Amino acid sequence: xxxxxxxxxxxxxxxxxxxxxxxxxxxxxxxxxxxxxxxxxxxxxxxxxxxxxxxxxxxxxxxxxxxxxxxxxxxxxxxxxxxxxxxxxxxxxxxxxxxxxxxxxxxxxxxxxxxxxxxxxxxxxxxxxxxxxxxxxxxxxxxxxxxxxxxxxxxxxxxxxxxxxxxxxxxxxxxxxxxxxxxxxxxxxxxxxxxxxxxxxxxxxxxxxxxxxxxxxxxxxxxxxxxxxxxxxxxx
Length: 236
Ligand SMILES: [Zn+2]
Hints:
By secondary structure, the protein is α/β, with parallel strands linked by helices. The chain has a single domain, classed as Glycoside hydrolase/deacetylase (TIM Barrel), CATH 3.20.20.370. It is 35% helix and 15% strand. Strands 1, 2, 3, 7, 8 and 11 form a 6-stranded parallel beta sheet that branches. The protein has a 3-stranded mixed beta sheet with strand order 4-5-6, with helices on one face. Strands 9-10 form a two-stranded parallel sheet. Strand 2, helix 2 and strand 3 form a beta-alpha-beta unit. The C terminus is likely disordered. The site of zinc ion (ZN) has 5 residues, from loops.
């Protein structure tokens, strides 16, 4: 089944480094953008002072077939905000992306991972993505794995590409940098990931191209992805 390659946090090196490398392979990616930060810098560790993409850069990506989806307006923990704030985060980011890109987002990625207000996410978006195990398609019970690719996990790419025989797999990554830390990736590690994807001949798609994720739920349950995740974190 196809995979989806996503980039969280709208960091500028997604445009400067990941975009040209993806283009070499003809792959289209997905940016989960934090709409209040665009054009500025990330305020806190671990990405303190790292520049964000601009709307102009996001428009270039969109014109080239990438998708610009929502990672909220200000990147709060959804488990720590009230319901009205959650509505604000979901709707303001959606409207800003629709206004500035010309295409409303259909997928939402939870900041930091923790899931809350699934009913609201389902109301405003077709797809919700958490960090480690799950992505759902308007139905919180449905899921496919969402797998982080970073300096600790990139060598497990082949494992997840084999997993893609049975399920959609959503890969997500953050920043690509020369001295990668946890949740970061070096340019060489990103090249490794892309070359493995290419050699596997798996199809790379995006959320809107694959409007309905037909999930083999009989094969999979939330536990399966957790176990698989534990396996990759422990190096199998
Ligand atoms: Zn994030």
